[in-house]
Write a structure and sequence with these properties.
Order of helices and strands of chain B: HEEEHEEEE
Oligomer: heterodimer
Mean pLDDT of chain A: 94
Number of helices of chain A: 9
Helix content of chain A: 25-40%
Number of strands of chain B: 7
Low-confidence stretches of chain B: 1-5
Largest sheet of chain B: 5 strands, mixed
Radius of gyration of chain B: 13 Å
Helix content of chain B: 10-25%
Radius of gyration of chain A: 20 Å
Structural class of chain B: alpha+beta
Distance between the termini of chain B: 50 Å
Distance between the termini of chain A: 33 Å
Largest interface: A-B, 39 and 27 residues
Strand content of chain A: 15-25%
Strand order of the largest sheet of chain A: 5-4-3-10-9
Chain lengths: 271, 74
């Protein structure tokens, strides 16, 4: 290959910069949730197949009457996986902060996925409350990854506060609609000094690839895998989708043109 | 009331009424419930109890206790 083809500002997949988040390095750019699986065994299998090294979990009261005492962490070793507790179900900054403090006390680190829900039907975040909670949590030393609307201004504010990443939604949680506003995601990526992780709304592998093609640093998903007819196969599809999208982004896609450009030589045609 | 009953006390555990035989050290209650400290976090009357204090913390009548763990979530 001639040196003139080299793009010094770009890197190929083999030279891809590692995905760094809050001082940790990850090989996989996929983060997966652990909800909605049939059982812990299926959860573990799907996580393994996805290649993810970071998993989200929910913080809930221990079931006092359940004598089985099986615990999710028995299936997902915190030494192997970065555990990312979420604040799902919290509707106020106060609830979310309390949940994060409890989560940290379990003893698997200080990274938290902050979500303060503003509306039950759409599960869209309460942006003001998310920012309020993030301020407190960052001061308390948490590594905050906020779930937020695909709003470039909100993402900038969260970045300024000191969040270690911003996590704009692609579409409503569990909707599978894919990236509804790729232009906003592109703006968020352009502005960001912290990793951008698309969180929620992904439905299938091409959605994950699209997020990566837009230049996102990672994708977080749960329902798209757990809700698939074959979650294990979908976990693999997502892994490949993330890799394909990342590679396409690094490769520098062609520009879109209205008219055709011939791929075959236009000279030497047999007439 | 018999002596056993008078010693028993009521607390609130994860939002539900719960009876203890008497003032109980937190570490003993956690063991009785079959829980492992490495898998849980505890809040006593809205204050986090660090794991290092499970031994020395006593649960008393009227206390409100929250014990959480991680479950599947997105």
């Amino acid at each position: 290959m001639s040196g003139t083809r080299a793009l010094p500002h770009r890197k190929t997949m083999l030279q891809d910069t590692p995905f760094k988040l809050a001082g940790r390095t990850f090989k996989s750019r996929l983060i997966v949730g652990t909800g909605k699986y049939r059982d812990f065994a299926e959860t573990r299998k799907a996580v393994e197949e996805s290649g993810a090294e970071m998993v989200t979990v929910a913080v809930r009261r221990v079931n006092i009457t359940d004598r089985a005492k099986e615990n999710l962490l028995d299936y997902l070793d915190p030494k192997r996986y970065q555990i990312l507790p979420n604040t799902a179900g919290c509707y106020t900054a106060e609830e979310a902060i309390r949940t994060c403090r409890l989560a940290r006390e379990v003893g698997v680190g200080d990274m938290v996925k902050l979500e303060v829900i503003g509306d039950e039907k759409t599960l869209f975040p309460d942006v003001a409350a998310t920012i309020e909670a993030a301020k407190v949590l960052v001061k308390e030393g948490f590594k905050v990854l906020p779930y937020i609307t695909d709003d470039p201004v909100a993402c900038l504010k969260l970045q300024e506060i000191g969040c270690v990443a911003v996590m704009p939604l692609a579409a409503p949680i569990g909707s599978g609609l894919g990236i509804r506003n790729p232009y906003n995601i592109a703006i968020i990526v352009e502005q960001a000094r912290v990793p951008v992780i698309v969180d929620a709304g992904v439905g299938t592998a091409s959605d994950a690839a699209e997020a990566m093609e837009l230049g996102c640093d990672g994708v977080l998903m749960n329902t798209a895998i757990a809700g698939a007819k074959d979650p294990i196969a979908m976990a693999r599809a997502m892994r490949l989708g993330i890799e394909a999208g990342r590679l396409a982004y690094l490769s520098g896609r062609i520009e879109k043109k209205l008219y055709a450009t011939a791929s075959s030589p236009i000279t030497g045609i047999v007439r | 009331m018999g002596s056993t009953e008078s010693a028993s006390l009521a607390i609130t555990l994860n939002g539900e009424p719960y009876r203890l035989d008497g003032e109980t050290r937190l570490v003993a209650l956690i063991a009785k419930l079959g829980m492992r400290p490495a898998r849980i976090a505890v809040e006593l009357n809205r204050e986090i109890v660090p794991k290092s204090q499970y031994e020395t913390t006593t649960v008393k009548a009227g206390d409100v206790l929250e014990i959480i763990n991680f479950v599947g979530g997105g």
